[in-house]
Write a structure and sequence with these properties.
The complex is a heterotrimer of chains A (about 250), B (about 300) and C (about 290).
Chain A lengths: L2 E10 L2 E11 L4 E5 L6 H9 L6 E6 L2 E2 L5 H6 L2 E3 L12 H8 L8 H6 L1 H22 L14 H14 L4 E5 L7 H16 L3 E5 L3 H7 L2 E6 L2 E6 L1 H6 L1 H8 L4
Parallel strand pairs in A: 3-8, 3-9, 6-7, 7-8
Antiparallel strand pairs in A: 1-2, 1-4, 4-5, 9-10
Helix pairs in contact in A: 3-5, 3-6, 5-6
Chain B lengths: L1 H27 L7 H17 L4 H25 L2 H21 L1 H4 L5 E2 L13 H25 L2 H11 L1 H6 L4 H27 L1 E2 L6 H14 L4 H24 L5 H22 L12
Antiparallel strand pairs in B: 1-2
Helix pairs in contact in B: 1-6, 1-9, 1-10, 1-11, 2-3, 2-4, 2-9, 3-9, 7-9, 10-11, 10-12, 11-12
Chain C lengths: L2 H31 L7 H17 L5 H24 L8 H22 L14 E3 L2 E3 L1 H23 L1 H11 L1 H6 L4 H26 L6 H4 L1 H11 L4 H17 L1 H23 L13
Helix pairs in contact in C: 1-5, 1-8, 1-10, 1-11, 2-3, 2-4, 2-8, 3-8, 5-6, 5-8, 6-8, 10-11, 10-12, 11-12
Classes of the chains: A alpha/beta (about 250), B mainly alpha (about 300), C mainly alpha (about 290).
Chain lengths: ~250, ~300, ~290
């Protein structure tokens, strides 16, 4: 289940936002993506997850080309994403958020609401049990019955991750998991990611916190103004003069 | 006095059906429907026409629900792709088109003159108000059934899904789910309930004219929903009670101040409804009971 | 039914289209800058017309004076609505100001009927023989009204494209965050917006009132066709709104022999739904991006 981004190009409003971007996240990989603001990281995520269509290039997941597929379809193949600014189901509780995220084609129908019977109840029990598991895993037990709109920033980030986990993803595009989160919680989140990665889930992580990201991932890509500047281990990439220059704005 | 209270209760029941079905659309699913009166009118005329041709009431009511739901289907499909404000305008346009068709097709609907002599169930129970009370029983039974139905629906996994769609549709798609089917179904179910409310209205009023189905009715129902608090069945019922108080209260005032013209009372009612909408949107968007959707 | 008949309809359609165009322009501006559909637009027009009538009833037959009263009243009311309701709703979703505008519309209309009554008023115009152009009768009044409408549109465009405040309005319409970041003060821009909207509605109300009758429902009745034109013309384009309104007005009138009086009104609604079904973002709109 590897993710292959091949020479993707994207134009927005007359500006080239992604220029011949190629990346590879191997099955079970733990890869990072860095770059200054405006580098195109969010656009890349949007293209990979299907919210934007590229002008050129392809995205393949598990050897399957994703061209033209809607975000729902890509997610169902196991390629899921979180959002930079969390998108909780605000009026639902944490538990309900989780349960709403679990796939349940037959269960979430009008028919099942009235004629579901024992099988439907069983499925809901399983989903609830899975939700409790994920809630415990992420340490959200204390707020499980709180409305999502009442959660703190860090808790919302955890909820984002938790919801994606309910859908049993094969690979997760994590959009700035550490943004606005206190250092202790950052360490917590990193732990969880390592844990999940050990269980076989691949990660492509966009993050501004270079230090935290470098401790977490084995491999890094650097993006600036739509182009890949460098790739390699965190140490290698961060040492690249071009990368340093991109962040400080100096000429390389 | 009893007769008056029974009449008010019947009108309450009919409006309550409209409010809870609109709440299903907007409060629970986030669909902005400004054409609810369209479903109401389709149901009313469907049942009226069929029963005037001698068909049994059951057929009339069933047709009311079915035709209203069917008309909601294409609207629901449009709702999938339209942004909020366009959907609001389109649903409003839909209701007006329905009213224009009703006005134009005289051979079917009686046009501007409308339909009269619409039969009423239990009419044979004769004098003494028994017929009215029986009808109230019917309305109450239908309302209870609708409340139970909606309650069951919103507490189910499907209900969770539509509320998730309301809260963040993009997140729903990112999680691998398709909001489309759910939205269309909810639109149809709410429309069906509004259609049945229309049938109840037609048989109660015994006459129908297109002017009874102007956009104002939709906005009355919106006021009721906002006032009570969206996303709560109890809120919808409370809001309806306030609406009925306003609509009926002006009548009471007229008895107290006999000099006031009926026309002026209508304007006062309208002013109050408009004012309440503005005040609640500004200062208490969660409604009296604290709704689940800030408009 | 010769050519003169259709020509007559077309000319009628142009006048109607211009009136709808003014309303659509007012709608369009609020859509673009304040980002919500303003359902009170029609009633602002109605208020303007009544202000004009008030001047007439007070004894003055001076149409210019009546027109000025109309514009002043509509501008005052427009700003009042902004200060009382729309300003406080700026952070909220689009539905809030939309609902508020509906409430304000109902409030305005009902207060008007309460204090002024339900009778219809008519602007007393001098009776002039119509001109004949290629066998088609053209009312001089209609020509005047058309000119006034066109001048109003021109003035609006001049403000939008030639004045600094107009440029700021367009900047806010394009990108609010960017506009704020460039130092544009939103309050001033919005105040100017509502003054401009009031101006347009005042003129539109007078024109509609002179052409037809003045009654409490008059503005509300053309609201939906105006919405249709605004959406069809493209929410971002004031020019598009006026053009779409003209097209709709003419199409509506020309369809009269085929659709009849009742159905022709439905034409613009049907066209609106049809276009949005095919192009959900409107004719010239774009879909919002998801990041």
């Amino acid at each position: 289940m590897s993710l292959v981004i091949d020479r993707v190009g994207k134009w927005l409003g007359g500006v080239c936002v992604l220029d011949n971007v190629s990346m590879r996240v191997p099955d079970g990989g733990l890869i990072g993506l860095i770059g200054p603001n405006g580098a195109g990281k969010s656009t890349l995520f949007a293209v990979v997850s299907g919210f934007e269509a590229p002008e050129s290039g392809t995205v393949q997941f598990a050897d399957r080309p994703l061209t033209g597929l809607a975000p729902q379809a890509r997610a169902r193949f196991g390629l899921m994403r979180t959002f930079q600014v969390p998108r909780p189901f605000g009026k639902l509780t944490v538990v309900e958020n989780m349960m709403a995220a679990a796939p349940s084609r037959k269960g979430e129908t009008v028919w099942a609401a009235f004629f579901g019977g024992a099988a439907a109840r069983r499925e809901q029990d399983e989903i609830r049990a899975h939700a409790e598991e994920v809630i415990t895993f992420l340490g959200l037990g204390a707020v499980r019955d709180n409305r999502a709109s009442d959660l703190s920033g860090g808790q919302l980030k955890l909820l984002e991750l938790g919801r994606v986990l309910m859908a049993s993803p094969k690979m997760i595009l994590l959009d700035e998991p550490f943004a606005g989160v206190n250092p202790v919680l950052q360490e917590d989140i990193s732990e969880r990611i390592r844990d999940l990665n050990a269980r076989g889930i691949g990660f492509l992580i966009v993050e501004h916190n270079l230090a935290a990201l470098s401790r977490l991932v084995g491999r890094l890509y650097a993006l600036d103004r739509g182009r890949i500047l460098a790739e390699g281990t965190p140490a290698e990439v961060l040492a690249e003069p071009a990368v340093r220059a991109a962040y400080t704005g100096d000429a390389p | 006095m009893l007769a008056y209270l029974v009449a008010v209760a019947i009108v309450f029941g009919i409006y309550a059906l409209l409010t809870i079905s609109l709440d299903l659309h907007y409060g629970f699913t986030g669909l902005i429907n400004f054409g609810h009166v369209g479903f109401f009118s389709i149901g009313a005329y469907a049942s009226a026409i069929l029963t005037l041709h001698g068909l049994p009431y059951v057929v009339g009511f069933a047709a009311a629900a079915a035709l209203a739901a069917l008309s909601a289907w294409p609207l629901g499909l449009l709702a999938l792709r339209l942004r909020e404000d366009y959907l609001a305008i389109v649903t409003l346009a839909f209701a007006e088109i329905v009213r224009i068709v009703i006005t134009a097709e005289e051979w079917l609907t009686g046009g501007v003159q409308g339909l009269s002599g619409i039969p009423r169930p239990f009419a044979g129970l004769g004098i003494g108000g028994a017929a009215e009370i029986a009808y109230l029983g019917l309305v109450a039974a239908v309302l209870l059934a609708a409340v139970l139905l909606i309650n069951r629906l919103v507490r189910s996994p499907f209900g969770r899904l539509i509320q998730a769609i309301r809260d963040d549709e993009v997140a729903v798609t990112a999680l691998g789910k398709n909001p489309a089917g759910a939205k269309v179904r909810v639109f149809a179910i709410g429309a069906a309930i509004a259609g049945i409310a229309g049938a109840l209205y037609a048989h109660y009023m015994n006459y129908l004219v297109p002017d009874q189905f102007v956009p104002l009715v939709t906005f009355y129902v919106w006021m009721a929903m906002i006032l009570g608090g969206t996303g709560r069945i109890g809120g919808a019922l409370l809001g309806t009670a306030v609406l009925i108080s306003i609509l009926e209260g002006s009548r009471v005032l007229r008895d107290i101040f006999p000099g006031v013209l009926q026309v002026e009372m209508a304007s006062l009612r309208l002013a109050l409804v408009g004012l309440l909408i503005v005040l609640f949107v500004l200062y208490r968007p969660d409604g009296l009971l604290g709704g689940k959707t800030k408009p | 039914m010769g050519l003169t008949y259709y020509l007559g309809l077309a000319i009628n359609g142009v006048i109607e289209g211009l009136i709808i165009g003014l309303a659509a322009l007012a709608l369009n501006l609020v859509f673009a800058v304040a980002r919500f559909p303003n359902a009170a637009t029609g009633d602002l027009m109605t208020m303007g017309a009544y202000a004009g009538i008030a001047v007439q009833q007070a004894g003055s037959r001076n149409l210019l004076l009546q027109g000025l009263a109309a514009v002043a009243a509509a501008m005052a009311l427009s700003v009042a609505m902004y200060l009382f309701a729309f300003r406080a709703l700026r952070g909220r979703t689009m539905l809030s100001p939309l609902l508020a505008s509906i409430g304000l519309a109902l409030l305005a209309r009902s207060l008007l009927s309460l204090f002024v009554g339900h009778e219809q008023y008519v602007f007393r115009m001098p009776i002039v023989r119509p001109w004949m152009l290629a066998g088609v009768p053209i009312q001089a009044n209609d020509l005047w009204l058309a000119c006034i409408a066109i001048v109003c549109v021109a003035v609006t465009f001049a403000v939008l494209f030639l004045t600094p405040i107009g440029r700021q309005m367009r900047a806010v319409a394009d990108d609010l965050t960017l506009a704020r970041a460039s130092g544009i003060r939103a309050d001033r821009v919005l105040l100017a917006l509502w003054l401009l909207v009031g101006f347009i509605c005042g003129v539109a109300g007078m024109v509609l009132g002179v052409r037809t009758v003045v009654m409490p429902e008059m503005g509300w009745n053309i609201l939906l066709p105006a919405f249709a034109a605004a959406v069809l013309g493209g929410v971002g384009s004031p020019v598009g709104a006026v053009v779409a309104a003209l097209v709709l007005g003419v199409a509506q009138e020309l369809s009269t022999p085929f659709l009849g009086f009742t159905y022709k009104i439905a034409l613009s609604f049907a066209v609106l739904i049809a276009i949005l079904a095919v192009r959900p973002a409107g004719l010239f709109g774009h879909v919002e991006r998801v990041r």
